[in-house]
Every structure is written in C-alpha cells, then in structure tokens.
C-alpha cells in the first residue's frame, strides 16, 4: 500500500473510531434512544468446524442494530443445516482506552446454562445479567437437573468492538456466540467490519463453548449502513417488539464465572 493510500486509510479508521465513541457517548448521556444510532447490517456468515475447515458460508445475512443500546438482530433467508436461524444481540463491548495508547483491554461475558425437567421433557435455559430465562421453569415446579457456568474471555484493542448474540437454530434456543469486530473502513455512512480471531486458533471468530456446536465457530462480518436513518417507525416497532419478546423468553446478562468450561 502506498504511503498516501495508507494515510487515507488511517484517517478513515480514526474517523470510524470517533464515530463509534460518539454513539456510545450519546448512549451514556441520553435517556431516550437516539435514532441516529440505528444501522442496517448486511454481511456474511461463515461456519468453521473444529479443524478450522470452512463448512458453510452465506453471503446474504442482514439485520438491524442500535449498537449503543445493545439492541438488534440479524438473520438469513437461507437455512443452515436444514433450519432457519436468528441472532439477537444481548451485549456490546467497546474499547475504552486512550486513543493512540495501544492498550489492550480484557472483557468477560459469562452465563449459566440450566437444564430442567418438566412433564418428562428436558428443557435448557440461560441466566445472564439482570435477566433470567429460567424463571418460568423455576416457578412452575420443574426439577433442575444441572447447572453449568460458561464464559468468553477476550481482549479488545483500539478500533475493535464486540457483540454477544444468542442464536435460535432448529430446536435450540439461545446458542451463545461471541462476535468481535475490527473496524476496517468508514465512508459514506457505511462502516465495514471484519471478524476477529479472539481465541487465536487461526480461525476467524470465537469457538463456541457449548452444544450443539462446541468447538466450532460461527463467524460474521459485513457492513453497518447508517444512511437508513430515520428508520420507518413500523420497522423500529418490529425490532423493539422482536427484541422484547426475545428478552421475555430468553436470557440476558450477568457478570459471574471464570474461564470457559464444560464440567
Ligand atoms: Ca478463532
């Protein structure tokens, strides 16, 4: 890359970082959601097996995000292994360092997966943060069979951020996937991001830690388009409603646990 091109590239990346910091700053200081933080996401889904072999790719995933408010989802019209899927955002992480410091920050997302038995059927649910997807089972008199702690520990550097999504696929609910991103470019309201190999196994993305895809990787990258603002009210209601339903039936956040494990 020529020096002039490199300078332009650096300027774009710094602009993108400034923009990201602006969103999060606005989110911290405003009580109401700022419509300008909403973006339309289009991107690629890649699935790698434990050996790092790309087994499946889907270049046409899409969704809507309100990153500072940790809301959003994405999905695809193409089935993965015979079933549709949908990823709902449950947590966002940003790099909080001093620009130019080169500092690396360690982040943690942890959750508890409980298995309950009711009417002869085993049902799993997640507990994470302030939300507890197991409440209904607890209150119904179901019997708890097992409880396991899991977590993702990862580090972020400047121009990086991460989201944790809960994916519904086939009969599975809330498969936890860490999706850490590197800002590659920001121009004309389009933020381009690439997947980070947070667990440094040579495979883009972060290996999943529990069934049904333990050891395999769901990796995402793509583009956030901020030119869609203001979003049509009907679409925004759809997003909010879908997320509310997810939060009611699914998990949330709680800081607890240590290294990832499968006891
Ligand atoms: Ca990896």
Overview features:
single chain; 263 residues; alpha+beta; 8-stranded antiparallel β-barrel; 4-stranded antiparallel beta sheet; 13 strands; 46% strand; disordered C terminus; binds calcium ion
Report on this model:
The structure is a single chain. The protein is α+β, with helices and mostly antiparallel strands. It has one domain. The chain is 19% helix and 46% strand. It is built from three helices and 13 strands; from the N terminus they run H-E-E-E-E-E-E-E-H-E-E-E-E-E-E-H. The protein is globular and about 55 Å long. The chain starts with a helix and ends in a 14-residue tail after the last helix. Bound molecules: calcium ion.
Listing every helix as H and every strand as E from the N terminus to the C terminus, the arrangement reads HEEEEEEEHEEEEEEH
Main pleated-sheet profile: 8 strands, antiparallel, barrel
Q: What percentage of residues falls in helices of 4 or more residues?
A: 10-25%
Distance between the termini: 48 Å
| Uncertain segments | 24-35, 234-263
Q: Please report the total strand number as a whole number.
A: 13
Please give the order of strands in the largest beta sheet: 1-2-3-4-9-10-11-13
How large is the radius of gyration? 19 Å
Q: Count of helices?
A: 3
Strand content: over 45%
Q: Count structural domains.
A: 1
What is the 3D form?
globular
What small-molecule ligands were found? calcium ion
**Quick check: average pLDDT?**
81
Q: Which structural category do the helix and sheet elements fall into? A: alpha+beta
Oligomer status: single chain
């Amino acid at each position: 890359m020529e020096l002039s091109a490199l300078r332009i590239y650096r300027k774009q990346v710094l602009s993108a970082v400034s923009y990201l910091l602006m969103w999060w700053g606005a989110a911290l200081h405003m009580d109401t959601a700022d419509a300008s933080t909403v973006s339309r996401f289009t991107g690629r889904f890649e699935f790698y097996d434990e050996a790092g072999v790309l087994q499946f790719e889907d270049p046409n995933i899409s969704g809507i995000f309100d990153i500072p408010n940790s809301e959003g989802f994405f999905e695809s019209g193409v089935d993965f292994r015979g079933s549709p899927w949908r990823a709902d955002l449950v947590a966002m992480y940003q790099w909080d360092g001093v620009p130019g410091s080169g500092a690396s920050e360690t982040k943690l997302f942890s959750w508890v997966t409980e298995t309950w038995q009711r009417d002869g059927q085993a049902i799993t649910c997640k507990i994470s943060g302030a939300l507890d997807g197991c409440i209904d089972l607890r209150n119904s008199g179901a019997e708890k069979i097992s409880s396991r702690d899991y977590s993702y520990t990862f580090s972020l550097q400047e121009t990086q951020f991460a989201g944790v999504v809960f994916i519904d696929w086939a009969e599975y609910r809330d498969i936890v996937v860490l999706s850490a991103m590197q800002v590659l470019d920001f121009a004309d309201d389009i933020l381009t991001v690439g997947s980070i190999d947070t667990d440094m196994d040579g495979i883009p993305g972060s290996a999943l830690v529990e069934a049904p895809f333990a050891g395999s990787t769901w990796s995402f990258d793509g583009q956030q388009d901020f030119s869609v603002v203001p979003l049509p009210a009907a679409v925004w209601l759809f997003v909010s409603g879908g997320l509310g339903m997810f939060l009611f039936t699914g998990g949330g956040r709680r800081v607890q646990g240590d290294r990832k494990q499968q006891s």
